[in-house]
Amino acid sequence: MTSSEAAENPFLHPSELPFGLPDTDRIRDEHYLPAFEAGMAEQRAEVAAIVEGRAASGEPAEPTFENTIVELERSGATLNRVAALFFARVSADTSPAVQEIEETVAPLLSAHGDAISLDPGLFARIDALHARRDELDLDPESLRLLERHHRDMVRAGAQLSAADQQRLRELNGELSTLSTRFGSALLAGANDAAVHVTDRNRLEGLSDDAVSSAAAAATDRGYPDGWLLTLVLPTAQPVLASLADRSLREELFRASVTRGDGGTHDTRETILAIVRLRAERARLLGYPDHASYVIDDATAGTAAAAREMLESLVPAAVANADREAEGLRELAAADGIDELAPWDWAFYADRYRREHFSVNDTALRPYLELERVIRDGVFRAAELLYGVRFAERTDLPAYHPDVRWWEVRTDDGEVLGLFGTDLWARPSKRGGAWMNSLVDQSSLLGTTPVVLNTLNLNRPPAGEPALLTLDEVRTLFHEFGHALHGLFSAVRYPTFSGTAVPRDFVEFPSQVNEMWMEDPEILASFARHHVTGEPLPAELLSAWQAARGYGEGFDTTEYLAASLLDQAWHALSPEEAAEVDDVIAFERAALERAGVAHPLVPPRYRTTYFNHVFGSGYAAAYYSYIWAEVLDADTVSWFAENGGLNRDNGDRFRRELLSRGGAVDPMAAYRTFRGRDPEITPLLERRGLAAVS
Questions:
Q1: 25: which DSSP letter?
Q2: Could you tell me the residue range of the domain that residue 384 belongs to?
Q3: Between the CA of residue 366 and those of 309, 376, 526, what are the distances in Å?
Q4: Catalytic residues
Q5: How many structural domains are present in the chain?
Q6: Exposure check for the chain: N or C terminus, fewer CB within 10 A?
Q7: Rounded to an integer, what distance in angstroms lies between the CA atom of residue 46 and that of residue 411?
Q8: pLDDT at position 693, please?
Q9: Distance (Å, rounded) from C-alpha 370 to C-alpha 375?
Q10: Rounded distance, CA 128 to CA 473, Å?
Q11: Given the DSSP bridges, would you call strands 434-439 and 450-457 parallel, antiparallel or unpaired?
């Protein structure tokens, strides 16, 4: 890169915008790859300087915490800047140019990570410090950081032979390429699988605003007429609950469950390659399988412990699903349907709720308008619990026009950070919902957090309000729980910032935050008719609350099926993985073996579109949601026991858990907060599994 090119590349200099926000008004696609290359070269030079360890005298300096660990924490500033924005775009606003860059840079980043993790000189210094860690008089966070870096390097292969390290580098490079390939194929396949409808009568049952959104989606995708039913990432498609046309329900369901299973965007061979390489890598690192490798670094401790919990919940969950199915069969039979099918479940479950609980999801939606849910629901709960305030910033740039920013301050004016949203579905965005951190909090680096929640809501036509479902409201609260985890981070070292906690703990704060959508004070604040401003009628609220536990059989069974499927793929030894040549047959056998091959309840994600485990960071860790839900349900009980929505409770939760990031052992932090170990009973009661011991 020439000096003039370097001067013009926004990534090669700290952003001058508030909060260090990336200056996306100046960033172009051609800036990414040079910035990645420069950032990797910069960090390699920084690590080389650490390894060389020269004192001011020019003589080799003995390793110290400051000249080794702290300097390692300071390294990689340029690389962190470009990677944070680039991978946010990969997920939320990709393009052929971005995908081409990703394919190029993925193996380079893998090799770069290996170059640092497997650097013998760096490991020698960290190993020497680790050996005498008790003599260093480190504060608890610094001691934990030293132990974290040592453990990470050992787990990354620092103690392997040179030959084994070389093979490890090859495996990591191939896996990074394959994961990128899977994600690109899944996005393209989901876009292609959207169902185009040309007969308005086939949309009977959909609300007027849902029909308008489908028409807008068709226009956005270039169709000259009609309506487009786009797919969300999970198997279950929300509109199946409303569509009266059974043939259209079946068409949409089959479009969902066959993603990646053949055709132009087939993911099966990529999946098999990923599974085999992960199994080989785990063996190389001294583990029997990939699940054992992953969970060894999680709060569950062992893959056996994670599987034991999942398996213990199966009998009661499936029995509950069977009971729910009987009620649905009666309703379907009244419509002349002899045999209930998976694409009928949501439709008749919605009717069951209406007939038995007087719950009508369509009737609820006018009371769940997006702007009010955000302002008077999500933000209001945080204001009452934590004393924070949100002021929208319309002067800050973003990678896409849909992104909005809010400055977050405490009630005494202290600036906490910047919160953003990117809410609308579009063809350039992968499915699902998630939180990104564009800038991590760190007192060492003097940085304040910039976090972003991304969802996939259907955009209403211009001038019309966005009316949400209950599930969409819950998702907003959930993802904002992740955002609070990032915003409230108060750690010294960036390694521990915000959500940098074990995978099976990271969902705990986000799931706790869901509770506030049902708090009477918060609900009364945001659940108001979008036209009249009238509060949610008492009869609708009572019906919703009465029906709250209905459907847990289906929900728990579909979740357990996906979690156990994830475990099955990643419990394979290299020899077993090599023998698998049929993805669908393996999936079928794994579900049967686990007792969750329910004919009416498919897994929340089938293998071919299971982005969490083949395109993201949840490989062998999808169990994390229900593992963290034990803590979540127990914490909900704590709030209820201590007065619910009040500042004292919020401050305690923030101080003991949300602010600590990875700087303390998460379970120790939980015990400090709760005063004891978590109990599973609240989870079992919530999910209708109280008979499970």
A1: T
A2: 365-501
A3: 40, 15, 11
A4: 479
A5: 3
A6: C
A7: 40
A8: 43
A9: 9
A10: 51
A11: antiparallel
